[in-house]
Amino acid sequence: MNLAEVIKKCSMEAFEASIPCDIVFGTVVGIEPCLVKVGDMTIPSEILSVAEHLLHKETTVTLAGYEKTVVINAGLSLGDTLVLLRQAGGGNYVAIGKM
Questions:
Q1: Which fold has domain 21-98?
Q2: Which of 20, 23, 76, 78 is the most buried (most CB within 10 A)?
Q3: What pTM did the predictor assign?
Q4: Where along the chain do its domains lie?
């Protein structure tokens, strides 16, 4: 590696370190476990955190003696486009919303 390549590499590492995260978009390609495709890479659930408001939620309500299960949020579906925050260096991702 010559001096110019070393300087370029150092400056790129310094630049990337100054940006704590990137916004990327991905498509849900798996539900259990959650898999998201970003470009030609598939993000596994081990490095993906999903915000609570995107998860499936249901509750049981009782009205006039009758119990009924109500879906509050259907959660993620195959093909959903997600807004993701990518940690600098690409180590971890957080799904923060749906498009």
A1: OB fold (Dihydrolipoamide Acetyltransferase, E2P) (2.40.50)
A2: 76
A3: 0.70
A4: 21-98
